[in-house]
Amino acid sequence: MEKFEVKSQFYLNNQPFKIYAGAVHYFRLAPSEWEPTLRALKLSGLNTVETYIPWNVHEPVEGQFNFTGQADVREFVLLAQKLGLYVILRPSPYICAEWEFGGFPAWLLRYSDMLVRSNTPRFMSKVKAYYAELFKVLVPLQITHGGPVLMMQVENEYGSFGNDKAYLRAIKQLMLDNGVDVPLFTADGSWQQALAAGSLIDDDVLVTANFGSHSAENLAELQQFMTAHGKQWPLMCMEFWDGWFNRWQEEIIKRAASSFKTDLQELVDAGASFNLYMFRGGTNFGFYNGSSSRQAIDYPQVTSYDYDAILHEDGQPNAKLAELQAVLKVPAVMPDMPVVKAYPTTTATAQVRLIDVLDELGQVADSVTPLPMEQGSGYGYQLYQTTVVGQEQPEKLKLVDVADRADIYVNQKLVAMQYQASLGDEVEVPLAAQNQLQILVENTGRVNYGQRLLSPTQSKGIRTGVVIDRHLHFGWRQWFIDFSRLSQVDWQTSATVQYGPTLTKFNFDCSERHGTYLDCSQFGKGVVILNGHNLGRYWRAGPTQTLYIPKDFLKLGQNELVVFETTEKAITQVQFSDQPKEADGCEN
Ligand code: GLA
Prior knowledge:
Layout: E1 4-6, E2 10-12, E3 15-17, E4 20-24, H1 31-43, E5 48-52, H2 55-58, H3 73-82, E6 86-90, H4 121-138, E7 149-156, H5 165-177, E8 184-189, H6 192-198, E9 206-211, H7 215-228, E10 236-241, H8 257-269, E11 273-280, E12 291-294, E13 297-300, H9 320-327, E14 346-347, E15 350-353, H10 358-361, E16 362-367, E17 381-389, E18 394-403, E19 405-410, E20 413-419, E21 427-430, E22 434-442, E23 461-468, E24 471-472, E25 476-481, E26 502-510, E27 516-519, E28 525-530, E29 533-539, E30 546-549, E31 557-565, E32 573-577
Parallel strand pairs: 4-5, 4-11, 5-6, 6-7, 7-8, 8-9, 9-10, 10-11
Antiparallel strand pairs: 1-2, 2-3, 12-13, 14-32, 15-26, 16-25, 17-22, 17-25, 18-21, 18-23, 19-20, 19-22, 23-24, 26-31, 27-30, 27-32, 28-29, 28-31
Alpha-D-galactopyranose binds next to loops.
Protein name: Beta-galactosidase family protein
Domain Beta-galactosidase galactose-binding: 501-559
Family: Belongs to the glycosyl hydrolase 35 family.
């Protein structure tokens, strides 16, 4: 049995050991991509792979657990071991990671007394139930049980959120109670206040720091904190940011390979251990992207999590790979990554309007006031509908407490689109004697960082109601749209008129499966479902204009691709590309 210890240095099998790790999120890749990615990681001179574990992936519905397919963390860890790599796991209930709600499942928000990241009975009881299942999978993978897992994280940058030590201790204790017996650590920003608020240094939990530059200065901060607490521990940068993530309507952020090399060299020269965040970024498939928050507005992140990392989203090497190999003094050998190619352009085979297939595609519910999204799955889209008696004159209408984006239709005409700063603005709508009011609301992704994790705005949809004139309008029907029901859609109901959101179907043959990109530059805003896999959101606003498709999502023979377009843009063709595309400007 191998042995890993944290003393004044890391020790592996009684020998001093440096952890040179890279982050790969199994849940952001398709399973066939795990092995080539881990092989490339090894070829880069790294000895360890690190991954977060997102609660919302493993318990999507309360009490229903998923550890298969893309969520098969056990398989991923065993694959790493087979390739001779060690593993660091970060299974905390909160992971940040530009992931929906920082990893928290949306269903938590059904409880009005839910206070995430705190030692409160409601929250901790949900963590406890999840951990009971999760650690059944993780415990046997620890190095103490013959597995490759060296250590595990208690919480993630808690010092940038709160200071409830009782909560940190309760999480630690739950891990121990569930059988964790490898060393534990916390990771925080490298300044004294964050380290003090986020760590459990006096409980002997290793303290690590996250930063992407000024390595010597940041290590000195970490050292100072440890020394002040009388600890002699190895220095580790738990997230050395080699790139960065992107948000809609902003420029793509890139990090130069040269500055990455200089700062990494400084870290290595100082004798520190590190984890490159990210080694390969991957994709925010489905509705799993998070949002950044500034003041009162949330800014959702794009579907691609390329991160300008060592390997790109599609697995192809970035220029940083050679720099990494140079710093780690390993041969400059390029990994043999699977090819990415374009498929021929395809023309639509059928189209329906969302309103014609609501009962097939949505779970329906009637209510007095509109229901928030968490009454359904809590993700994606919800369509609200009601009838309004009017005076044949314009009337004022206002959505009260709505998130995140709302398209308001009166009598099948779009009268307003509200998003960010304009959300909840009063609009004047033309009303006939009898009117049909429909509102499509999108949850564009909950925040993954900061104080707004506790804000009521993280409950999506219409939370309070709709005011017309001066009164709340009562009597609603709503559909929680569920794309896993796509096979129930009757494509014959097709109406040719372009109005409101549409679903357009494409069928194409595939004789060879390989990774590819769907070109969305001619679409408006929506999501794409390929053979039941939600490829994630696209938006003409950019900066990204393509959706990555791993080969696992394609089928040999007939494939079905459905574009759910929420603007009135006509979708007639789909084109593929062998590389990602970016928008030249950020139009809305
Ligand atoms: C922090 C978090 C990570 C991630 C990065 C930015 O360090 O701990 O989860 O959000 O920022 O990519």
